[in-house]
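Q: What structure does this chain adopt?
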Amino acid sequence: MDVTEIIDPLNEAQREAVTAPHRPTLVLAGAGSGKTRVLVHRIAWLIRVDGVAPQQLFAVTFTNKAAAEMRQRIEALLGFPTRHFWIGTFHGLAHRLLRIHWREARLAEGFQIMDSADQLRMVRRLLRDLQLDENEWDPKEIQWFINAQKDEGLRPERVDDDGNAGRRQMIDLYARYEKACAESSVVDFAELLLRALELLRENSELLAQYRERFRHLLVDEFQDTNAIQYDWLKLLAGSTGIPFVVGDDDQSIYRWRGARVENLFSFQKHFPATEVVRLEQNYRSTSTILKAANEIISHNSSRLGKNLWTEGESGELIKLYAAFNERDEADFVINRITDFINQGNARSDVAVLYRSNAQSRVFEETLLAAAIPYRVYGGLRFFERAEIKDALAYLRLIANRDDDPSFERVVNTPTRGIGARTMDAVRECARETGTSLWRAAGSIIANDVLPKRSSKALWAFLSLLDRLDTETREMPLHDQVREVTRASGLIAHHGRDGQLAGEAKVENLEELVSAAQGVIQDEESDLPPLAEFLSYAVLESGDAQADDYEDSVQLMTLHSAKGLEFPLVFLSGLEDGLFPHQRSITDAKGLEEERRLCYVGLTRAQQQIYLTYAEQRRLYGKDNYGTPSRFIREIPDELMEEVRPAMSVSRPVYRRSRPVQMEASPVKLGQRVRHGKFGDGVVLNSEGSGAHARVQVNFENGGTKWLVLAYANLELM
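A:
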C-alpha cells in the first residue's frame, strides 16, 4: 500500500505519532510543531492503513473553525467527504448525541440551546421573582457559579454549602434555574456536556454501544480540557477505547475558565499503557525566539518537559524598550510598525499583544492618529450582534413558544407598547401557574387582567408569532428566515438606526439569510431545518472564529493570541503587577500560568519580537510605578538588546547586554530630586534636548510640574 502521501510530509517525531500502535497515546506538541497535521494524518493512517472504519472515530477540537479546517484537510488527504465523521467541539458532539437520544436524556424533542446572554436574562428573571436585589446578588456571579458547578459535574443536590448561608442561597438559585430551564425546554452550554455525561453514565446499554462504536478517541488541545470533558473522555474510552490526545502543558492558559493542565499529568495514570511522543521541532519562529521561550518556561516546575528547536535561522535579537509611560510605549510601537509597513510589509503581519484589555485604548488612539487601520481581535462576532440575536429569538419562538429568554428579548422589539408593568403581570402569572411566559400571556389576556390597550398590544405579539409560524412553515429555510426578519419588523426597525449603522444592521440581517442557505442538515438528526439552524447558530456564537477584515494591524490580549502567528510581534506592558498580573504573583499556580502566557506570547512571533515596559503607567484611572517584569530577567542577556533613543535625560538602564549610545546627563527617570520652591519629588518624564530639555517631576507637596533643566536648579538626592 502506498502511504507516501501520508508520511512523507512528516518529520521523524510526527511519523512516530501518526503511525503509533493502537494503544493510548499522548502527543506533547510544542508551539508551531504541527499538531493539526499530526491529527489529520493520524486519522488518514487509521482509515487507509489500519483499516479503521470512519464510524469508529470520535475527534474533538475546541472551536468550530478548527473542526472545519480538520474536515477540509482530511477530505483533501483521503479524497472523500467527512460528513458522517464525528468531528467537532465537545459541545457540538454532545449536542449531536443529545439530539439523537433526547428521550433517554430526559429532554424535550425540540429543546433549544441558550447562549450566555439568554442564560443571564433567565438568572435575572429568577432574581426578580424572588425579589432579590441585583446589587447584593450579582447575576453574572450567579451565572458563573452555575456554570462552574456543571463544569465539575455537580447538580444542585451534590453541591456542598460549606455551612455558608450565601452559598446556600446560590445553590437554591441553581436548583430554581434548572427547574426554569426544564419548563422552557432550553439548555445552556454547560448543560450540554453534563447531560451528555449523565446520558452515558446512567444508560449502560447505550454506553456499551458507543464504546463499541467509537474505538478511537482523538482530542486536540488536551491541556484545555476541564473536569467534565475529561470525565466524558474517560467514560467513553472505558478499558477498550484508544485515546489519542494532543496537547502542550506549556500552553495551558485557561485555568480561569475551568481548564485543567493536571489532566495532561493524570493521563498516564488513567491509561497506564500510554505511549508519549514529543513534537519539539518548531516551524514558526527563529532559534533566538525559541531559546528565549525555552528559558522562560524552564522556570516552571510543573512540566512534562520538552525543548523547542528549529532548523531555521537564528534571526534578530529580541528588542527591549523601556518607555517613560504608556504613551511613549505606544508611540514607540506605532513608529516601528510604520517603518515595517513602509518597507512593503502587510499591516496584518503585525500583532500588538497585551495582558489586559484596558491596555488597548492608548494603542488605538495612537494608531488612529497615525491613520493606520487596526482591528481589536475578539470583538463582537456575527451571531453576537444585537440585530442577529433579535432575529434568532423570533425564530426560536417559532420553533418553541415556551422559550422564555427569547420571549423576553423580543416581546417589545420592535417597540409595540408592551411595557414593564405588562411584563411584570406576565411574569407573576407564569410564576404562580408554573408555566412559560407565552402561556401566561395568553392566560392573562383571556382573563382580562390587563388594561385594554396593554392586552391588545400583547395579543398582537402572540398573533404575530402564530402567523409567522403558519405562513413560513412550508418555506425553504432561507426564505423562512428572510420572511421572519421582514414581517417581524426587524428590517425596518434596525434600518432606522442612523444611515450607516442602520445599513450595516440590515446587511447583517440579510447575511443571516445567507447563513441559513449554507447550513447542511445532519443526516442522523430528525430535527426540522429551522431547529437544526438554531442549534448551529448558538454553537457558532460560542466559537472563537474571526471574520475577514481589511489589511490591518492586530491588537489582542495574550489569551486571544493563542493559535495565531505573525512575522512581527510587540509584547507590551511587561511590568510586575501587570504581567505577571498582581493577583498571580503570590500564587504559585497562578504565576506558572502567567509564565505560560508569556511563553505563548513569545512563540506567536515568526521573525521579530519587541518587549516593552513603562516606568510609569496610567491604567484603570491610576498612576502606577512598576518594575520590569521578572519574565524579562529570565531571558539570557545574549538573546536581547535594549533599544533606547538618544536623549539629554538618561533613563535607568534595565540591562546592559549591549553598549548603548546616549548623551550623558546626571538626571535619570525615577531619580529623586529637590527643588528650592516645590520640595522633594521624583522625575517621571522628559522631552527635548540641549537648552530646551524639560523634565516632569512629581513633587510630594507641590504636585506634578514640568521644569526646564537649564533653570530648575534641581538637587540630586
